[in-house]
Amino acid sequence: MKHVLGNKKAIALFVVPGLILYVGLVFVPVIWSFVYSLYSGTPGLSWSFSGLKNYSKLLIDSKFHESLMVTIRYILTTMLGMVVLGLALAMMYRFWLVKFKNLIRTITFFPVILPTVAVGQLFRKIYEIQPNYGLLNSILDAIGLHDLVQPWIGQASTALGCLSVMDIWVSVGFYAVIFYGGLIDIPDDIIEAAKVDGCSSWQMFKNIIFPLLRPITITCLVFAFAGTVKVFESAIALTNGGPGSATTTLSMYMYNVAFEYRNYGYGSAIAIVIFLICIIGTRIIRFFDVKEA
Amino acid sequence: MEKKTITPVDVIKKIIIALVVIVDAYPIFWLFTCAFKKSSEFVTKPSFALPEGLYLKNFSEAWTRGNMGLYFRNSLIYTALALVFIVILSMTIGFAVTQMEWKMKNFFADFFLLGLMVPVATALLPLFQIYNNTGLTNTRLCLVLTYIAFGLSLSIFLVTGYMRSLPREILEASVIDGCGIYSMMWHIVFPLMKNAAVTVLVLQFFYKWNDLLFSMTFISDSKLKTIQTGLLYFENEFGTKDWGAIFASIAISVFPMLIIYMILNKTVIEGMTSGAVKG
Amino acid sequence: MKKKAMALVMAAATAISLMAGSLSVSAATDPDTSAEKKIKVLSIWAEDSADGKILTGMLDNYTKDVNPNFSYEYEYVSASDLSTKISTLVASNDLPDLFAYSAGVPLRELIQAGKVVNVSEELKAMGDEDKVMDSAKSIMTSLSDTDDLYDLPFGMNIEGFWYNKSVFEDAGVEVPTTWDELLQVCDTLKEKGIQPIATGGSDKWPTTRIVNAYAYRTMGADAVKKACEGETKFTDDGFVAAAQMVADMADKGYFGEGATTVDNTTAEGMLLNGQCAMLYDGSWFTSSITDEETNPSGEDNIGFMGVPVVDESVSEASELPANCGNILCLSQDKYDGAMAGFLQYFVENVGNYAMGDYQSVRGYTYDVDTKDISSVTQTVIDAIADAKTSTAWWEAYMNDETKATAQDNIQSVLNGDMDGAAYMDSIEEAYTISN
Known about the structure:
The complex is a heterotrimer.
Chain A: H1 2-5, H2 8-36, E1 39-42, E2 46-49, H3 53-60, H4 62-96, H5 101-113, H6 116-126, H7 135-142, H8 156-183, H9 188-196, H10 201-229, H11 233-238, H12 250-260, H13 264-292
Antiparallel strand pairs in A: 1-2
Helix pairs in contact in A: 2-13, 3-13, 4-8, 4-10, 5-8, 8-10, 10-13, 12-13
Chain B: H1 8-34, H2 41-44, H3 57-64, H4 68-98, H5 105-113, H6 120-133, H7 140-164, H8 168-176, H9 181-192, H10 194-209, H11 213-218, H12 227-230, H13 243-274
Helix pairs in contact in B: 3-13, 4-5, 4-7, 4-10, 7-10, 8-9, 10-13
Chain C: H1 2-26, E1 37-43, H2 50-65, E2 70-76, H3 82-91, E3 98-101, H4 105-112, H5 119-126, H6 134-144, E4 157-164, H7 165-171, H8 179-191, E5 197-198, H9 205-219, H10 223-228, H11 237-251, H12 264-272, E6 278-282, H13 286-289, E7 302-306, E8 320-323, E9 327-330, H14 337-358, H15 375-386, E10 390-391, H16 400-415, H17 420-434
């Protein structure tokens, strides 16, 4: 066994080609941009070494602080929403669906495959208020809640929440599939036995299903975290960061600084911060895994 | 088994299921209706109204102005090439870092996952300089390589999940039967990992098919551009957009994805419910 | 010691020859109309749009009529991706031979780094200085803050309010000429349940243009330029009043509900379909007005009313915001005789070609007849001819950080989250920090 699975040549053959591509095209650019973050200006135009100046600027840049807060609020709501609703949907697949299992699972995965431009435009229309009421405002109006009709993505108080709802809608099918993969691995007899013992649904979930799904849950959380920290395209498509800077996330601010303000060095510094947040956040989530497993 | 009586709880369950299905399926329907609308309809009618008629000019605009025919083929080439390599590489790496025995395997497993944390825009300028210095900009190769490299982390992440549940006994049995590592990989691991492969394939297909940032930056030759760049043809200098044609383009680009997904999803489900993994 | 002295002399000689070298670079290049060359063109105008056809038409005609060895590769990117594209190309020292770019600070950076050709010098040597319209020239040199032209115009737009004639008629209101009348008209329309003005608050610039309109009417055409050069402050009363004017108009509901969610395409559609009475937009809007599909009510139903005046002694009625849109630049590194040949052909012919075949003014002089022209296009041409002076747009002279603040926060003004003073404070702050 060992001589087969410890075959050095085979390991090299399996890992090295991918490793070269990954290091060369993903990792080198990251290190490259770390080097860039020590410079100020635009490469090719006004490019000078400035040491850690970009990093000290992070401390006083109020736009950076705002976008950091926006990102944190967004991560907390969206990550939890994706994972909790994904689990709920997977439970539905597993325990409620009798007929049309495949069809329904296929349909609930649809949002994942739609291009972001299309999703953004769809939700703009759902939240629309001028020139015509969109779906949400039409429904509110129709059921007599005219007071609740409002520019959902046009005001700072609701715009970020609307963005979260859209991204949860997009991703929930993806997490549901991952959870479902874990749920069908739980043998039917365990569940039947629990039912015979008179377990309520909630007890069964708390005592049997959730503990068995813990590793998958952690994986999903890590994945959702990494995805939400980098949120970029969907925010551009729905609100373009507005109104004001109410939905300007870190990634979007980074992109603007680097390419719109043409301050590539400072943009790289923000990118490094995003990268660090990702790594630290992931460590924290993994920490729960180790401690309680 | 319980008797089949319809309780109020069942009705509520059915309603919830129906709602979930509507919420997820309606947008596709909406997308296709928008593709048939005239531009003035987008302003005068509520966006959820059905189109006044089948306005097919959007599709001919999308096909000719957006160069959909050519771009479609290009996208297919890039995506297919990248997917083949992503699947093979993520399988071999996933197997190496979970089941094989070597010192650095945990380190490399984590190292590959770091890629999930990289904001794509960070890599844009360095990558462009790498390709520009090696003369690779405006080649199919640079886009395929980028797609593979940026697809690896997620794919390895997904594959390792499946790989960990690979029963050790099967591998042991195959060794006893005289399998070497390569024939084990080919005859035992790959077939058992069919579901993993399909999952990776389906997901990566969507990401690569929908990519705009990379293709826009690395490809300037209009003969080599991808389907998503076709969408840009319907927005002018001052931001005026031809929404009818944009939705027709999206519909054209989404349609094959729907078909591919419908076909492959069945394989995923079959594999998951009756595959050898569950034993 | 001798060696050291020798080295110094050598160094000085090298320095002088380097300087001489750099001087010779700036001397005009002789056009070569037979050299073989394939140029790269980076454009934000799709090949089959009117703009794209004019550009590719000029390139094709040059190959056909003058230099058969000349060819080109045309790359189209969307306007919103232009700045990213140029950034990556500049960083790799690979600017295309001919490319579209944004006037103002972005172009100024390229000029300072010596990346773009001094167009004035070249045109002077060719004897074609008069081919670029004086009005275009003054707009462009003022934006780049140089005496010479470093870019070529590719458009000539004026801006102002457009109105829907049948909506005005139905409501029984007259076209306003002063700002007070404008407000009264808005009031009347609002009372009759008609949305007075649509503005694309989601795209941000359509709304800052209205602040700009009131600011230049009350403070003069160069008010923003002065503030951007540090002569005055953005927190001056005049600016605060202009921003407060828009805040008040938003508060009274003149822009309708949720104006921050409306994009300019929708706002244009609302005017064309009679869902609002007025819209501030540039003359590029004429292409939608004359298109039956976007404007079912016909081009005669839409009128141009310019910008209502406040004080004729500060800014007279014919003075309108004008711009050349995105401009064309030539890469200094790639510039040679072959390119000079095309440049000469381009400036000498594009004015007539654009007017003759596409009825559009591009910032170049023309001497063809302007008959068979649609009435709305004629209005625009007349307004351009009438304007003795013009002004730029709100963010024209701002650096990118200040511009971003000015644009982002206008949404807060529309929402009522910021008043005029807070808005101008935020711009002043961004301006101070970024300098």
